[in-house]
Amino acid sequence: NKYFGQRVNDGFKDKVEFVYTGLQDCSIVIRNVTEQDERCYRCLFNTYPEGAFIGRTCLQVYVFVDPSQSCLQVYELHEPVVDVRESNSTEEWVVSCSATGRPAPTVTLSVSQQDLNFSQYNTVSVSNTNATFTVTTTAVLSGSCKHSTQVGCAARVLSAPHREVMVTIREVQQTHDDDDDDDDDDDLFHTFTDW
After folding, report:
1. Does a structural domain hold residue 182?
2. Which residues contact 67 (CB under 8 A, 6 or more apart)?
3. Based on the domain organization, do 170 and 133 belong to the same domain?
4. Does 5 map to a domain?
5. Buried b (16+ CB within 10 A) or exposed e, 30-65
6. Coiled coil: which residue ranges (predicted)?
7. 85 shares its domain with 46
8. Tens place of pLDDT for every residue, the chain, 195 residues?
9. Are residues 46 and 98 both part of a single domain?
10. 170 with 105, same domain?
11. Can you tell me the distance from the alpha carbon of 106 to that of 96, in angstroms, rounded to the nearest whole number?
12. 3-state secondary structure of 190
């Protein structure tokens, strides 16, 4: 009110500042936000003779983990993990990519060879106990790998820089002997890049 003016509780005096203090137009700024500031905040107007008007808003804090930067940003995104395996069909691969972040990341698959294409997309999002989300996108890659083919997985969280992982699939040898139990992983080269 006009007699007492604006007041910030002691625990928030160094962090909270009023920008506008009108009853119909009130704004505050919270400075130097950390994950510990994630909570709901209440703004109270004591008026006479009507009594108290109370407003409530909740703040969500997102942290972007980037070791090359010393400043704290408001997102979290970890490097995607790609898994490529041959399906039972001769010219199909099952490609799966998982990325963990906060908020839930968008996961996108890509392939370098033009005559290959993805189908049967399936995306699952799992909420983790630390408030992050793990999103897994799986698709079937169809076509003949005539030479080394790169499969990519890009993960994005809001406007944070995206992270991408590339996996190279070598040409599949069609002369496999039925008695040969070589590990199919010999046909994959993994290269991880952060863009």
Report:
1. yes
2. none
3. yes
4. no
5. eeeeeeebeeeeeeebeeeeeeeeeeeeeeebbbbe
6. none
7. no
8. 566 677 777 877 777 777 666 655 666 677 777 777 777 777 777 777 777 777 776 676 666 555 555 554 557 788 888 888 887 777 788 889 999 888 899 999 988 877 788 888 899 999 988 778 899 999 988 877 666 788 899 999 877 778 898 888 765 444 344 444 444 444 444 444 444
9. no
10. yes
11. 14
12. strand
Are the beta carbons of 98 and 84 closer than 8 angstroms?
Answer: no
> Does some domain include residue 40?
yes
For residue 28, what are the domain limits?
A: 10-59
**Do 35 and 119 lie in a common domain?**
no
Counting the structural domains of the chain, the total is 2
- How are strands ordered across the β-sheet holding 149-156? 106-111, 149-156, 163-169, 188-192
| CATH number of the domain that residue 148 is part of | 2.60.40.10
For residues 130 and 171, what is the distance between their CA atoms, to the nearest angstrom?
41
Residue 111 lies in a domain: yes
What is the chain's Cα-based Rg? 26
CA pair distance 90, 140, nearest whole angstrom: 12
Whether the bond between 105 and the residue before it is cis, its omega within 30 degrees of 0, is no
